[in-house]
Amino acid sequence: MISRVTNSHIASLIYRHNNANLLTLTHLQEQVSSSWRVNDYADDPQGVGLINRYETLLRENGQYARNIERARTMVQQTDTALLDLVDVLRDARELAQREVSGAASVETNRIGATAIGAIVQQVLGIVNQSVEGNSLFGGFRTDIASFVRVGGEIVYQGDLGVMGVQIGPHTNMPVNIPGSELIGTAASTLMGIGDLAPALTAATSLDDLAYGEGWAPGLVQWTGADGVQMQLDLSGAGTVGDVLSLLNAAGLTASLSADGSRLQVADPAGGPLTFGDPTGGGTALSLGLVGSSADGVVTGTDVRAAPDWTVALVDVPSLAGQLPLGSLQVEVDGATATVDLSGATTLGDVRTLFEAAVTAAGLPPLTLQLDGAALNVRAASGTAFTISALPSDGTAAALGLLGEGHPQRLFGVLEELQAAMQASDLDGMRRGLGELEALEEHLLRLETSLGGRETMLDWMEGLNAEHDISLSRNLSDIRDADLIQLSSELKMAETTYQASLMVSSQLMQMSLFDYL
User: Fold this and answer.
1) Across the strands, what pairs with 274?
2) In the CATH scheme, what architecture does the domain 52-186+409-470 have?
3) Distance separating the N- and C-terminal Cα atoms of the chain
4) 404-426 burial string, b = 16+ CB within 10 Å, else e?
5) What is the pLDDT of residues 394-410, one digit of tens each?
């Protein structure tokens, strides 16, 4: 049986196929013009979700980069101000040393007093600097001058605020130093230099790592000798031992470094080994385990926990070979006390024995304090004191307690020194010399901490740059089109569309036979 195809059906087929060819051509033209393979949700629903995720991470990474630049400005300006303060205080100290010498006279004392007055104004100008209109040393009170003269006395009118800046997914860094830390305190303090942090153990809580900063639970990734990239979720870990067990179960050899200060991982198959975080992560960084090694062993950075008074002395690596402890000597105004620490087994024992020995000797009370990984000694009365080592006894050095404790008053010492020079008071000038030296050391310690912040900023800047490249590459793999292949497909689509139009025109030509 012969059936006849109607003109309307032919026209419908022609329209449908031509429209499909036109849509294909238009879609390819859009991809060529944008250079993107994915331009809307219909192009690749799963890809759109990944694209949105990578774009969000890139925006966040860009914000971290801007935060780093702003933080660097603040840190560098603060660093410069502290160095300027140190230089000015050294000038004051040299001036005071000259005036306590035998060649000084009442007239030179008065000239020196005038010079110290000028130094006070110079210091006032340094500590009242601003960055982009914000007070450098005002804490959170950045809208006012940090130091003002009230009733003949210079006072700090800022607050204790320390501003933190997010410079990475899980990294927040302080960028300012409040003026309260500059002016010091009327109490005498000997800042210890010992490193009394305990060694890491399998039982060490991950929340205590990095002197209490803790860790960021999440994924870590590595590429071993076989070139295969692996990932592992450490979110369920609670202790260092948990992390080591999970990494070992995943095929790596994980352990603690010989000194107990850091974690390390090795590829049993040999190098190279790269260990770190997936894009946007910060778990490996918080564990100190980021790096590459040609020999297959990646050793992390120091992530020990901060000590507390319960820490056993045998667990402190820096005291190895120094136990049991011996004795040290404390001197206050010519009176001395020998502190026997041989019975101490914990840091708390050291504190108890030290404070009890000082009190028993009738000296002004001294207290031991933990600051980070170091012990400090403080005299609330402001009395100057000295801690020294006994012959052939390394206890004071092992604990980091050697030197003099003085008040650390920025303006108070300068104004008292000026008054002493005006009155030709040699004892007052000598007291000022000791306090100026302690104040210089205090400012240099602050400057050293800023150096560590600058190093962290440099490192995070490089890490963020690597993340940015990785994110951009991943985004490009999903979103960007292969222009060479796309050009070929576009040419084919144009030819197909033109051919369909030509065929359509031929099919729709009418003659008498179409009606027979």
Assistant:
1) 223, 292
2) Up-down Bundle (1.20)
3) 16
4) bbbbbbbbbbbbbbbebbbebbe
5) 999 999 898 888 776 78
